[in-house]
Amino acid sequence: MTILVTGATASVGRLLVDELVAAGATVRALTNNPARAALPAGVEVARGYLGKPATLPAALAGIDTVYLAPLPAYVEDFVRSAREAGVRRVVVLSGEPADYEAQGDPSTWHYYRIERAIEAGGFDWTFLRPGQFMNNTLGWAPTIKAGGVVRAPYPGAVQTPIDLGDIAAVARVVLLSEEFGGRKIVMSGPEGITQPEQVAQIAEAIGRDVRFEEQTPEEYVAALAPSVGAETAHWLLDGFRMMSEHPMKPEPAVADLTGRPGTTYREWVATNAAAFR
Length: 277
Fold this sequence. Notes:
Layout: E1 2-5, H1 11-22, E2 26-31, H2 34-37, E3 44-47, H3 56-60, E4 65-68, H4 75-85, E5 89-93, H5 98-102, H6 111-120, E6 124-130, H7 141-147, E7 149-152, H8 164-175, E8 183-187, H9 195-206, E9 211-214, H10 217-228, H11 230-245, H12 253-258, H13 265-272
Helix pairs in contact: 1-8, 9-13, 10-11
C-alpha cells in the first residue's frame, strides 16, 4: 500500500514522510519543489500541489490512503479527484477549533469546512485535531532579538502547545493502522503554560533577559492585522480570550498513541534556542 502525503514540503508533512519511511511504509510525496523537500531515498515524488487541482489525478492514481494537509479553499477539488481515483482512507490534519467553528457562520469555517467535505465524500476518515503549535512562538524572535521583549494579549491564557514532531508521530500511527476510522483525535502538548511562562523559558534557554509586555486587544489587532489581515487577527485574539476564560488542559493522545511522552515547551526551546538569539 502506497500512502500519499500531501504538503510534503510543509512542516508536519515533511516530518511525517520521515516517520513513515522509518516505519518501512511506501510513500508518495506531493510537492511543488522536490529539491527543496530533500526527500529520503525511495520516496516517490508526485510534482504538484493541493492548490493546483489539475495535478491531483496523477498524484492520486493507485492510492488507497492519503494524509491531507489543510487547504480548505481546495478541499472540494481534492474530494472530487480522490473519489474518481478510488481513494479509500483520508487522514486529515484538522484543528482543535473545528467543533467551535461548526457552531458559527459557514463563511468562517476553516477546519470544519475540510472535515465536512471529507465526511460527505464517503471516505474512511480520521481527523487529527492539534491545538496551538509550539513553533508559532518563532514569531516572537524578531522582537526578542531587537529588544528582549515579547508583546501579546491575555497573559493569563493557558495553552497546551504541541511540537510538530509529535503531530507527525501520531499521524504515522494512524496512517499505518485501520483502528482509527471515524475518530476525531484531539491532541496537545503535555502541559498547560501561559505566554509569560513561555517567555521565561526562552530567556533561560538563550541566557539573556526577555520581558513580557501585555498588549491590549486593540494593540494586538493593530500590530498583527497588516501582516495577516484583520479577520485573522481578530480570530487569533478570540482564541486567546477563550483560553483566558477557559484554561486548556493537556490531552493524552500523543502519549497514548506513540507510547512516549509529548515534547515539553522547555525541551522544544532548548532545541530551537538559536532562532531566538
